[in-house]
Amino acid sequence: MKAIKSYSALEELGRVRLSKNYFMRDFLYSEISNFYGIPNFPDDPELAIAAGHGLCENLLEPLKEQFGQVTIRSAYRSPAVNGYGNKNKLNCASNESNAGHHIWDHRDKNGNMGATACITIPWFYDHFQEEGDWQMLAWWIHDHLPYCSMEFFPKLWAFNLRWSETPERKITSYAKPKGILTKPGMPNFVGGHAGEYECMLDAIKKQL
Q: Cβ contacts of residue 111 below 8 Å, gap of 6+?
């Protein structure tokens, strides 16, 4: 797909199907873009589509199959949108840091393609709202899916979920307990962690 230079081309981009349940249009909404009137679509649609396909097929679809609805709060950001958000302290990292993350159509500093979406899983939040409960979901994803990184937040257990060609597999959190939950080299990184989310699986079984 060529660079977006017309409304019809943007419409066509939105119709691109990234996986069974997700289309490119699902990931283009941005409060920064909407409120400040900054266009939010990629300079390199083909790279953004490829990265989005990796995110959806490898992470979002399996999450939807396991937990039901996955709500997208923030996903693709154009360099202009992200740059404005960073400059004006609107919870956006620098463009350099977000390449291959929220900026899907730019590779990261190591040349890897990647894509990030900030998501919430309503079923999980409805059932588990005690301090630290977010860790159950984090460990389940760690054990089952090829994520690159996760970054959890206190509100609604929203978290940044990143897919990359070269996954780092690191989990951090701004929700208590804050800091690094796991990363390569930590004793808790290897092996299974089923005991950490057993009650979550029991809750799922009760619904079947």
A: none
